[in-house]
Each structure stands twice: as C-alpha cells, then as structure tokens.
Amino acid sequence: MSAAVPSTEATQDTENLTDGFHLLIDALKLNGVETIYNVPGIPITDLGRYAQAQGLRVLSFRHEQHAGYAAAAAGFLTKKPGICMTVSAPGFLNGLTALAHATTNCWPMILISGSSEREIVDLQRGDYEEMDQLAIARPHCKAAYRILHAEDIGLGVARAIRAALTGRPGGVYLDIPGQLLGQVMDAVEGQKSLIEVVDPNPESVPSDEAIERALDVLKSAKKPLMIIGKGAAYAQADDKVRELVETLGIPYLPMSMAKGLLPDTHPLCASAARSLVLKESDCVFLVGARLNWLLSHGQGKAWGEKGAKKFVQIDIEPTEMDSNQKISAPLIGDIGSTATALLEAMGSNWQKPSEEWTGAVRSKVQGNIEKMAPRLRNNNSPMDYQGSLGVLKEIIAENPDTVLVNEGANALDQARSIIDIHKPRKRLDVGTWGIMGIGMGSAIAAAVETGNQVLAIEGDSAFGFCGMEVETICRYNLPVCIVIMNNNGIYRGDGTNWSGGEDPSTTVFVKGSRYDLMMQAFGGEGVTVDSPDDLRQAVNKAFETRKPTLINAVIAEDAGKESGNIGNLNPSSVVAQARYPQAKKI
Ligand code: ADP
Fold first, then answer.
1. What is the pairing mode between strands 57-60 and 109-115?
2. 3-state secondary structure of 162
3. Is the domain of 265 the same as that of 394?
C-alpha cells in the first residue's frame, strides 16, 4: 500500500478522535466564519490547508500586514469579526499593526497567530521565533487570549468573537501555541466543547429620560447639524439613520467612511458647505462619530465661537462622552435602536429647523459645487487631481455599487471631497490613524466580501506600502481596478536635495515609474494614461472586463501640496525656518 493512502486500520484508529486543527476550524465555522485572510508558515501552514479542505475560503497574502488590513476591512463591511491568520513572532508583529488599526477604528477583527512553545518561551531558552506574543498584543487590542488545551478551543474562540463584537467593536488577539493544533481528544467530547455565540450584538437602547433630554436640546437649536461617522455605517441601520436625518430635517456632514450612508447628493448633505456648518451651527448631533483629531476635537477657529454649541451624541461606548467637549445629551446605545427610539418619541409633528438655516446651507452647497464643476472637467495632460478625479467621480456615479478604496495624501483628500458616494459602506480609506498601506488589503476584502467591482485610488507613495499584493489580486482574479495617481513622489515629485548633493530629495521617487508593468508581471492588465479621456476609457474597460487592472495615471509633478490637507500637523520652529528658507515656499 502506498504511504499516501491511509490504511483502513489507521482510519479506524482516528475515527473517534479530533485534534486542535479541526476543533479550531469547527469552532470558527460554527460561529459563521467563512473567510480567513492568511499568510502560511510554521506553525499554521497545515491549519490553512485543512481550513480550505473543510470549506472555508482561505486567501493567502504576501505580507501579514495586508492580510490584517483585509480582515479589518471585512469586519467593517460585514459586522462580523474579520479573521487574519499569521505565523509566530515576525508574522504576528506584521499582523499586529492591522489589529491595532482595527481596534482604533472600532472594527471587529481577530488575529490568530501561531506561537512557539510556552515552556521554552517563558524560560527564554531561545525557541524558533521566540516571543511572548500575548503580552505584546494586549495593549494594542480590545482583548487577548491564549488557548493551551484542545478542550478549551471552543471557549477561546467564543471569548474572542464576543469580545470583538460586543459594545464598541475592536480587535482581539488569539494566541495558538503550535502544539495545541496537534493535541488529540475524543471527537464527541470535542464537538460538545464548542460554543456558538448567542446574541453578541445585543440591542442597547438609552432610557426614555435620555431620549427626552436629547430631543429637548435638538428642539431648542436654531442651527442644528448632524455629523455621521463610520460607526453609523458599521451599525447597518441605514434606513433608520436616513429616516432620522429626514425627519429631523437637519443638514448633515458625513465623515469619510460614512459617505454614501445617505447619498452625497442628498439635499441635506452639507459636505460642500463644511466650513459654514461647522462654524455657524449652534447644536451638533454626533451619530457614530468621535470628536477626535479628524474633527479638531470640536474646538478651534473652524468651530466658531467657543462654548456657543451644544453637543448631542449617540455612541455605544459610554466613556466616549465628554472625551473632548461637554456632551449635553448623551445617548448610550446602538445606533439602530437609538434612532428608532428617537423617531418614536418625535412623533409626526416634529418642527424642522427654519428655512433660513437650511436654505443658507443649501445655497452655499450649490454655489461651491457650481464653482468646482468646470475644474473637474479639464482635460489637461499631464493631469491634475481635479481633471483625473472628475472623471472617476462620473464613473462612480454611473456605477454606484463600486467599492471605492482610497489612500494617499492629496490623492486621499482630493478624492474624498470630489467623489460622491451613493450607497452605504462603499468607501474604505485610511481611517482614524490616517494610515498608509491599507489599499490593497482593503481592496481584496471589498472584492471578496461584496463581490462588487472595486476601484482603488492610490497615491504613488501609499501604493508602495502594499504594492506586492497585486500578485494576490491576480492570483484570485479579483475585480479590482487600481489607479495610481503618479506624480513621482510623496506629496509632490519636484522636491530637491537641500544640501545640493546628488541623492534625490527625501520625498521623490524614480521619475516616470511604470507601476502598470507590476500588474502585467502577474498576468493582469496594466496601462499608463496621461489624460482624463484616456483614464476614463481605461477604467471603463476594467469595469467591463472585471479583470485585475492597474492604471498608472500620470499627474503633474507639481500637483499636490505638502501633507495634503493636514500640513498644519507638521512641526516647525523658528530655527528650522531661518535655516531652510525653502521650507516656507511649500
Ligand atoms: P469617524 O472617524 O467616521 O468620525 P469614529 O471611528 O471616530 O468615526 O467613531 C465611530 C464611533 O461609533 C465610535 O465611537 C464607536 O464606539 C461608535 N459605534 C460603533 N458601532 C456602533 C453602534 N453599533 N452603535 C453606536 N455607536 C457605535
């Protein structure tokens, strides 16, 4: 008998047994996990193979960080924990950035990493990839667990899933010492030890008193504004949020990943009048959005007169209240249930704000959109951001189910304000950290989880952090069209070396790089374009064929500004400015 074919005897011997590999896979399947974002290696190579054999979709990446970003994005898109699986120490550390990113963004994700043997690691005897991964993970996620015994796998997975989902969602680390996978136990006992998590997202409704208080504040406001954040997009209470906005009748600002929850073309959308509404409003109603740096902590010149605004906030996390400004009416609950309770209490005679306020916002919006329109229609070659993104704006309007992935500095800031999103959860970007390199992982997760066409608009610098994953995109033949906004450098491509030396400036890349050839190398479509008309043609072709495509879009070197819209966050000093007069010119 050939060695590859197990003998009947061996089959009978193991028939009533199970092992750590199978229990882990069964526990994940029992809890609805369908996809694992993976990088194989010791000790989890076979775990990936067996998971695939058992019907899970296991997608292998080229680097753990991108498998992790994919899992994080999957968590946001599906409201279920995205699963990333890595090898020990270095692979774990690569995945940890993504786990921290998921936690920072309040997205559910579980990082499952193989680890070395406890007996050796704990005595620091120098094991293969020795590292106390559990201790290192803990500060970077919502919860961290280690499973030592096969009979505890059901418990460990259930704890991880509940911790990732319940309350404010976040990242969870699950440590799997290699030996655990090989542990064998009775199959029936093993099955009995598995736990299907019941109601990990319990409804949470604020008290009647809290609802009344919030409505009183909103009622007394003359110029109310709603800010809708990605927590509301995550909550998947799309109809309720829309009904709340329309019944209250107040202008709203969507944060970048909440764009499309209501279409950006909605008459109450105030995105094109952002400065006006932030400054002039007298009451701000935060719905799944934090008053963090992205909203300049609710203070400063952009927010108008100090102390002139009242804040109402819906959030699942009680400690979010008063974290930056006094919250006059906290609503602690999930967005769907809280919106429902508010709508019920508002009844049918809710007094909407005056036309004086909503009309002023609307006319500012219309004026700004009209002012911008001709710039978006230019056909300059090489392109600028307006001409190229103007084309992509039209393509997204024609294909509103497309998931837009977006990262970079200028490529991010400009695309966010120029491109309207028309449906919920159709925009994935750099999130709360403003992290670069999420592009390819997010694009892969978007294609896998939704089956929709993906358009990834990438700064040439941002793409550099994740470019090797184009091979992954080609391997799984995903409908991802990547547009690299190539202006030859970070922020701009015309930087010079201030020492006068031969090395290029710290912020420039090889001029005229052909990123499209990277895609061709793996069998995808690659093309270079330098005019908006050609860009339109290339993207339309990619959408028709649904083939992996990379479009190297040549942008003028001097298009773009230092650090995009957040140049003000760069430190400076009088000494530096005196020494480097060039710095002032940027
Ligand atoms: P943005 O960056 O879009 O402003 P943030 O990530 O800052 O959004 O805020 C999202 C907020 O949404 C977090 O404070 C989080 O606790 C909250 N959140 C997440 N899910 C829910 C939910 N289902 N119901 C209520 N709040 C939620």
1. unpaired
2. helix
3. no
Which residue's alpha carbon is nearest to atom 20 within ligand 1? 231
| Mean pLDDT in residue range 238-261 | 98
Report the distance separating Cα 275 and Cα 284, nearest Å. 14
pLDDT per residue as tens digits for the range 286-321: 999 999 999 999 999 999 999 999 999 999 999 999
Residue 11: predicted pLDDT: 58
Quick check: CB of 335 below 6 Å from ligand 1?
yes
State whether the beta carbon of 228 lies less than 6 angstroms from ligand 1.
no
For residues 157 and 225, membership in a common domain is answered with: no
Kindly report, residue by residue over 171-196, the tens digit of the pLDDT: 999 999 999 999 999 999 999 999 99
Tell me the whole-structure pTM to 2 decimals.
0.96
Q: pLDDT digit string (tens) for 76-91?
A: 999 999 999 999 999 9
Q: Is residue 6 part of a domain?
A: no
| Residue-wise DSSP of 447-503 | HHHH-S-EEEEEEHHHHHTTGGGHHHHHHTT--EEEEEEE-SBSS-S----TT--SS
254 neighbors 389 (Cβ within 8 angstroms): no
Residue of 165, 168, 293, 320 to test ligand 1 pocket, by largest number of atoms within 8 Å of CB: 168
| Residues 354 and 394 grouped into a single domain | no
- Does the CB atom of residue 255 touch ligand 1 within 6 A? yes
**Is 370 inside a domain boundary?**
no
**Ligand 1 center–CA 107 separation, angstroms:** 9
What ligand 1 atom has the least distance to the C-alpha of 237?
Answer: 23
| Alpha helices for 347-409 (secondary structure H) | 355-376, 385-398
State how many domains the chain has: 3
pLDDT of residue 1: 34
Q: Which residue has the tokens 């024609």?
A: 398
pLDDT value at 60 more than 70: yes
Query: Whole-angstrom Cα distance, residue 486 to residue 559?
Result: 10
Task: Mark whether 292 and 418 lie in a shared domain.
Answer: no
